[in-house]
Amino acid sequence: MGRESWRQRGAPRLGATTVFGVRTRNSPRETTVLWSGAVAVSARPWPRTRDWAYLLITGAHTADSALPGDDIVEGWLSRLTHLGYVGVRTGAVSPDIARTLSHNGFRSVQDLTLLSADLSGRSATDRQGPSIRPLRGRFLSRHSVVDRILHIDHVSFGERWALDHTSLGEAVRATHRSRLFVARVAGGVPVGFVLAGMTDSTGFIQRLAVLPDHRGEGIGLHLMNAAHRWLRSRGCSTAIVNTETANEPALRLYLRCGYAELPYGLQVLERNLTTGVTEA
Hints:
With 280 residues, the protein is an alpha+beta fold.
């Protein structure tokens, strides 16, 4: 969540060429800037579906964010079609932005519940559980570590929504500071991770994933506690997270961690640029 809104100060260049200092293949299409202003809009290939564009909209999570007029949006779509894309999909966007996009042929493909937690209280104390450690130093430059993180993400979220090297890098640098914690079981094998970020005094749970075979063991809770401790140590008073509305286990976990639903949710939308009909 919250991946488009803020850039991490002093972060390495993680986009299409590096993630945590690991060299990756360049994207066949460079990121295309479509609009600059209070809300900035750009596009690049969607992870693992290279002929679909990923529409990145900065500030798209705030309730008062808005896009320019329908004719401007149609101009973006024409440009993406000219670049060879056959479809376009957004990140998570606010209701007002979703309404504007729906006027331009987009349809919702994912509903997200947005939640907030007060971090002003004391950090939870973990009972005995998995080893939770931040990824840093030499471990951040290992292909095997990054690939394991992406494997956990892919198994957890599926082919359509999984991160790739580029989108993981975008998530890391989306906030002014970020920290990735990894849960390991016996033998040191990573089985889950959480990516936390912060901008000013607000924290964000950017991504949380645990391998299916290790769910129900409290690993998600331990990861959330580690993320919250780090956010508190950086002066954050509030944390924000979103999850798919139908994901009841995730919602239960976040409620257990002190989160409450905000009065509006987010949506992911898409449009097929060849027929005007979205994919199923």
